[in-house]
Specification:
By secondary structure, the chain is mainly alpha-helical. It has two domains: about 160 residues, no CATH class; about 160 residues, no CATH class. Helix content is about 75%, strand content about 0%. Helix 1 runs parallel beside helix 9 and helix 2 packs antiparallel against helix 9. It is globular. InterPro entries: ATP-dep_Glu-Cys_Ligase-2 (IPR051680), DUF403 (IPR007296). It holds the Pfam family Alpha-E.
């Protein structure tokens, strides 16, 4: 397979997953804003590491001086526009979907009609609504539509794509992005609720911790697994170390390692990216939550995130000629 083809499919998976995660995070943040102190925007831009870009977008707004003294709701509205509909933000939902569509259009021969039509239909819907009067735009409904249609695109890929290197590069990008996103969400959200990194809370805010789980769609999953009241340590374990939870860091790195092994079998070669993928998977597979907290959750997640970034660079060098 040409490196340009592999690159398009890899980044198609990453961009789609980024849009899906952003939509879910915005939904959880909007729910949380109904009962909290109006600081959700700060937490969400910290997850994406875009604090400076968000502040810059506010400065460019003509009503910035009024919004600075406005309510938390106004700041949240700015956040939604920045993360969902700002075409100048390369990580916004609209930018991510647009980039995924461009990648998919280049690889029409390597994806199915179902995948292409689902993705193209989402892009056309977004484009049509954003070209209209944004003052009357139902942002909540549009973000919900993005989340549902992204699920449909991934579903179409699962049931229609040929299991060859094209599928593996798509999977590799999607799960690497998902694992990084979950690690970021857990790191930022956990330490905003528990600044000292403690594994247990004396006075637990049930709604706030439920929304942490909602960011990965795992509120009911937590109840099925633990059958107990919410506990920060168990939430961290579920989001990080449970291989049977599809959005956990462990599950994502397991799938990354699996995709790398499939590609190694196809190409008959191994490289530094293969070693890193196996090492990262093993770290999450054999980690124990009590040992993680002894080390420090923030330090552990920071190391995982740094190694995910290194793995991404190595994949670029090994397959994509970056």
């Amino acid at each position: 397979m040409l490196s340009s083809t592999a690159k398009n499919l890899y980044w198609m998976g990453r961009y789609l997953q980024r849009a899906k995660t952003t939509a879910r995070l915005i939904e959880a943040t909007q729910r949380m804003a109904l009962q909290s102190r109006g600081k959700e925007a700060e937490a969400v831009v910290a997850i994406f590491g875009m604090e400076d870009e968000f502040r810059h977008s506010l400065v460019q707004n003509q009503n910035h001086s009024q919004r600075q003294n406005g309510s938390g709701k106004k700041q949240l509205s700015d956040l939604v526009d920045f993360l969902a509909f700002d075409e100048n933000n390369p990580s916004s939902i609209v930018s991510s979907i647009g980039s995924a569509r461009r990648n998919a259009r280049e690889e029409r021969n390597n994806i199915t009609v179902d995948v292409w039509e689902s993705l193209n239909g989402l892009w056309l819907e977004l484009s049509a609504k954003l070209r209209g009067d944004r003052a009357g735009l139902d942002r909540g409904a549009l973000i919900e539509s993005v989340k549902k249609q992204a699920v449909m695109i991934f579903g179409a890929a699962q049931v229609t794509l040929l299991r060859d290197e094209a599928y593996n590069f798509f999977q590799l990008g999607a799960f690497l992005e998902r694992g990084d996103n979950t690690a970021r969400i857990l790191d930022v959200k956990y330490h905003r609720l528990m600044p000292d990194g403690s594994p247990h809370a004396e006075n637990l805010d049930y709604f706030a911790w439920s929304e942490v789980l909602a960011c990965i769609g795992a509120v009911r999953t937590y109840r099925r697994i633990f059958r107990s009241s919410l506990d920060p340590m168990k939430i961290a374990e579920l989001m990080m170390l449970r291989r049977d939870v599809p959005r956990s860091v462990h599950h994502c790195l397991w799938m990354v390692d699996l995709s790398m092994r499939e590609l190694a079998d196809i190409y008959g070669t191994h490289g530094e990216a293969d070693r890193l993928a196996g090492e990262l998977h093993a770290r999450l597979r054999y980690a124990r939550i009590d040992k993680v907290f002894q080390m420090g959750l923030h330090a552990f997640l920071g190391g995982v995130r740094d190694d995910i970034a290194t793995l991404s660079d190595e994949i670029g060098r090994q397959f994509l000629l970056d």
